[in-house]
Design brief:
four-stranded antiparallel β-sheet, 7 helices, globular, paralog of FGE (formylglycine-generating enzyme), single chain, alpha+beta
């Protein structure tokens, strides 16, 4: 049993993780496809201020949803003739133009080219992500319904934080340390690096700020493949940076993106969005119930 702490709003929350024998047994009984792609997040108790919240165990996709998986979803919608849902869920690749100039290659190829199959899907609406979760649940229940039923949805912010912390005491990042690079100087996640050469000191206000050169840093890649960098203790990749991830609270994405600075890819970082964005993706939460 492991106890750790994190902040939700103005409250300090204490969370206790507990790996039960039944949880471990269940994951070994799941179909191999599910077992290999989803990480078990053990049950625990979250204490928020004077309130407490019991979290039963759940599973979280080890990676952000990638382009290939989302293309399969859209293809199924199209084959079924569900044009309404297809229109809602379809990727709006033109949104790349809101991120930076000279983005035609991303507009034309990021979602459709085989080279980007294992990159996180972006430019998806909140409603589109929910439809994906619904489709995935139907798919699981059709293929693997012998012993279990499956519910798929977006995680709440509390659930996402709980998984990002992975049983450690409160730390800024999912790997447990306070730094964005390891002892060899290698970056531990995909974020917008703002180096010393772009920091300026305002001699009037005596404040530091970064010199702007447009909406992005020339020469810096955008998203990284979904299995980039090291996973956390639960086996979850890219909980910090790469793409900010939608949660069930509409308009909120967490963990920061490839365009966020280092401070803004912390576990507790929140990005607000109102529409599909090249900075925002998602990963589903899976709840399994024995029949």
């Amino acid at each position: 049993m492991t106890r750790f702490f994190f902040v939700i709003g103005c409250f300090v929350a204490t969370v206790t993780l507990s790996n039960s024998v039944s949880d471990k047994k269940e994951i070994y009984e799941l179909p191999k496809t599910v077992r290999s792609n989803y990480a078990l997040v053990p049950a625990g108790m979250a204490y928020v201020g004077s309130d407490s919240m019991a979290l039963t165990h759940f599973y979280l996709l080890k990676t952000e949803v990638d382009n290939l998986s989302y293309r399969e979803f859209l293809s199924d919608l199209k084959k079924s003739g569900n044009q309404v849902d297809f229109s809602v869920a379809n990727v709006d690749s033109a949104k790349w133009k809101s991120a930076f100039a000279y983005c035609d290659p991303y507009v034309n190829y990021y979602f459709s080219h085989p080279a980007y199959e294992r990159y996180p899907v972006v430019n998806v609406s909140y409603e589109g992500a929910q439809l994906y979760c619904k489709w995935l649940a139907e798919k699981f229940n059709l293929l693997y319904s012998h012993e279990f039923t499956y519910e798929v949805r977006l995680p709440s912010r509390v659930e996402w934080l709980y998984a990002a912390e992975s049983g450690m005491r409160k730390t800024p990042y999912t790997w447990g340390g306070p730094y964005l690079r390891n002892s060899r100087g290698c970056e531990l996640c995909n974020f917008r690096w703002v180096g010393d050469e772009r920091i300026t000191d305002d001699t009037v206000t005596h404040t530091f700020s970064a010199v702007s050169k447009g909406g992005w840093l020339p020469g810096v890649d955008v998203t990284a493949p979904v299995e980039s960098y090291y996973p956390n203790e639960l086996g979850l990749y890219n909980m910090n940076g790469n793409v900010a991830e939608m949660v069930s609270e509409q308009g909120m994405a967490v963990g920061g993106s490839w365009h966020s600075t280092g401070y803004d890819v912390r576990n507790e970082s929140i990005m607000n969005y109102t529409q599909a964005s090249p900075l925002v993706g998602f990963r589903p939460l899976l709840i399994v119930k024995r029949k």
